[in-house]
């Protein structure tokens, strides 16, 4: 029995780079038939971005386009428009992430697609909500982060590196793709009731802002009382009128911080920048007592500067210094083992190399190995982030540029002669350069 949730769903993928392809790849992993539209002779821009070999597609492309079919198609030619029209007429979803106005100019806006196929769900990714004064800007990952208050609240709060900093996580790209995925699946469920598709608009700004929810909480609190007790600036520093950068605090009401450790094994601390551990002191009396036992800091239990959570907020710098001295002669793994026995929230700071070297994470979902074949062979990527008790994705290779063009065109009823003519007139293959 095939338990793929999206079995039988056909998706026309008119997206490229990261935000759109991350969404459509997940649809493919959930069982949808995803047909990726790529420019003849060029393809998705990421095919040739940050390549490890000039003759092979980059890992950037490979990690975002597994299990899709690729059709080489110029939708600007008359034949290309006719082919895309046929594809849409038989599709359940049409998804695009071109810059504002591009699909309207091409002739495949929501209104047009809805008339062609009322059941088709139209998904779009743009930089900003329609109501935004920035709605016509061309957005990239950092643009989404800086305009959604992510960068202004990330980074260090003093010294020469006190500058707005973007997250290493793709808050504006893959995060937007996952937000769009939620909207598309909701629209699919809605269509099951109404029989009609809808327009799903997802902005990079809103996806990024959604993950900055607690920063809006902090802004409300700051405006109400004038300070933020969980921030390192409290109690002696000054607060302005907006949420400041906060270094490595946990973000909630507990005291969380990153502490330096000694090198683990053969790692040289001068080379390895990740000899750190993250430790959280919870506010509860019972949890704090256990933590003190784990550190061997029982004197804190009777010291009025540390015995209560509110007192600890006012003396956090002293706490950071003492715990930092305690962690300095232990590895991040030793500390994790010691403190976890006392129920202390703790974890080692892991590099990408350490994560990708952890064989326990190759569980069929967390990290997966995909066999691309040929010169590329096997590569690693992040799998479907959730698990289902009755379904396991099968992670297949990425398509070659236009590798499924003939197959797709024949499924639409085109003859061999017609397919050959499309290749000659620039619809599915580049026109020869004029001499």
Automatic annotation (TrEMBL):
InterPro entries: CoA-transferase_III_domain (IPR050483), CoA-Trfase_fam_III (IPR003673), CoA-Trfase_III_dom3_sf (IPR044855), CoA-Trfase_III_dom_1_sf (IPR023606), Formyl_CoA_transfer (IPR017659). This is Formyl-CoA:oxalate CoA-transferase. It comes from the Bacteria. Keywords: Transferase. The gene is frc. One of its GO terms (molecular function) is formyl-CoA transferase activity.
């Amino acid at each position: 029995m095939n338990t793929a949730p999206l079995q039988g769903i056909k998706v026309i993928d008119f997206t490229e780079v990261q935000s759109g392809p991350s969404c459509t790849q997940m649809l493919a992993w959930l069982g949808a038939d995803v047909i990726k539209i790529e420019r003849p002779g060029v393809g998705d821009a990421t095919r040739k971005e940050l390549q490890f070999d000039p003759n092979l597609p980059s890992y950037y492309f490979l990690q975002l386009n597994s299990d899709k079919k690729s059709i080489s198609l110029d939708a600007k030619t008359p034949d290309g428009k006719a082919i895309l029209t046929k594809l849409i007429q038989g599709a359940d979803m049409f998804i695009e992430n071109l810059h504002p106005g591009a699909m309207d100019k091409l002739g495949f806006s929501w209104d047009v697609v809805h008339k062609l196929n009322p059941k088709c769900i139209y998904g779009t990714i743009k930089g900003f909500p329609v109501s935004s004064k920035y709605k016509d800007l061309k957005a990239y990952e950092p643009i989404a982060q800086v305009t959604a208050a992510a960068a202004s609240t990330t980074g260090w709060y003093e010294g020469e590196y006190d500058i707005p900093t973007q997250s290493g996580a793709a808050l504006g790209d893959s995060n937007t793709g996952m937000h769009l995925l939620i909207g598309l699946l909701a629209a699919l469920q809605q269509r099951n009731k109404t029989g009609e598709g809808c327009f799903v608009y997802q902005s990079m700004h809103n996806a990024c802002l959604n993950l900055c929810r607690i920063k809006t909480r902090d802004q409300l609190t700051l405006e109400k009382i004038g300070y933020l007790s969980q921030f390192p600036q409290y109690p002696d520093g000054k607060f302005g009128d907006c949420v400041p950068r906060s270094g490595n605090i946990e973000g909630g009401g507990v005291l969380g911080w990153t502490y330096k450790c000694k090198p683990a094994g053969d790692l040289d601390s001068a080379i390895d920048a990740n000899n750190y551990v993250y430790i959280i002191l919870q506010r509860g009396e019972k949890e704090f007592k256990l933590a003190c036992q784990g550190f061997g800091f029982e004197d804190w239990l009777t010291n009025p500067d540390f015995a209560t959570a509110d007192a600890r907020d006012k003396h956090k710098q002293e706490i950071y210094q003492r715990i930092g001295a305690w962690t300095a002669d232990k590895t991040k793994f030793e500390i994790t083992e010691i403190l976890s026995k006392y129920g202390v929230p703790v974890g080692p700071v892991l590099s990408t190399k350490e994560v990708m070297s952890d064989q326990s994470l190759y569980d069929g979902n967390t990290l997966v190995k995909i066999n691309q074949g040929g010169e590329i062979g096997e590569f690693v990527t992040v799998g479907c982030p959730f698990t289902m008790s009755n379904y396991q994705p099968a992670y297949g290779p990425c398509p070659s540029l236009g590798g499924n063009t003939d197959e797709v065109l024949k499924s639409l009823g085109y003859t061999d002669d017609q397919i050959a003519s499309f290749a000659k007139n620039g619809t599915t293959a580049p026109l020869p350069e004029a001499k």
